[in-house]
Amino acid sequence: MDLYFIVAIVGAFACVLVGFVMDGGQLHSLVEISPMLIVFGGTIFAVAISFPSSVLKKVLKVLKIVIFPPKEDREKIMEDIKTLSMKARKDGLLSLDTEIHSEGIEYDPFLVNGLTLVTDGLDGELIRKTLESRIENIEYRHSKGIAVFESAGGYAPTLGVLGTVMGLIHVLSNLSEPASLGPKIAIAFIATMYGVGSANLLWLPIASRLREIDEEEILTKSMIVEGVIMIYNGSNVTFVEERMRGFFEDEAKERKEE
Q1: At how many degrees (to 10) do helices 109-119 and 74-91 cross?
Q2: pTM for the complete prediction?
């Protein structure tokens, strides 16, 4: 579990709520069913209208990725590629088939897929195109999940304004009790708070986080593509390592500075 993400989300909401209380507000006054129904219910169904069910069925899985992001251990992958490169130069490309399917040795699934193409005897250019095509498909799938939350972040503030307008219409249609106008207007504006708050503290940050996770995964897979092609070409192991390090050189520097 990514505790950093959990702490950040809780901290963001806590700052808003604590600020509200410090200004003299009462937390129970923020809980109103009708604005909640308009904003959150309206946002959910607006998103449902925007995307096919095949995409929406994967939303929970996408949320799980946000909380439990995959680990991209590029250092280990580089070492695996170096080891496999040395074996290929020594024993030939076909020897990799036994190596990548050996029990007790765990390689990145995408790396295994790439090397399977190598041992199947495909041309180097065709291997690259095949793997890059798979990366594009992964990016496309990820973009759908990101788009769901970006859409929610766009709809929520608008529905919040809609809820406020509806509340004000109700208030202005009944001006016979001036003493009750203040509380009713306050309730009407809670809808705007729900909309703007959920968009900027929940939906859009989740979309940004998903995009970051996507970029990390695509970078790792791009690194693997280069590694597979260098193994296919029989490149020198030293060159393989230098080329691999180019994909996470900045990360390595940051870890040393820490």
Answers
A1: 20
A2: 0.84
∠ CA 151-152-153, nearest 5°, is 90
* Interacting residues of 241 by C-beta distance below 8 A, sequence separation 6+: 78, 82
What distance in Å separates the CA atoms of residue 184 and residue 123, rounded to the nearest whole number? 71
pLDDT in tens, 165-220: 988 887 777 766 666 677 778 778 899 999 999 999 999 999 999 999 999 999 99
| Cα–Cα dist 45/156, whole Å | 11
pLDDT at 254: 46
pLDDT exceeds 50 at position 256 = no
**Positive/negative CA dihedral, 142, 50, 192, 184:** negative
Sign of dihedral through CA atoms 132, 133, 138, 144? positive
The whole-angstrom separation of Cα 82 and Cα 192 is: 56
Per-residue model confidence (pLDDT) at position 29:
81
- What are the structure tokens assigned to 210, written together? 């998903």
Measure the CA–CA gap between 39 and 195, rounded to whole angstroms.
6
Q: Can you tell me whether residue 167 is helix, strand or coil?
A: helix
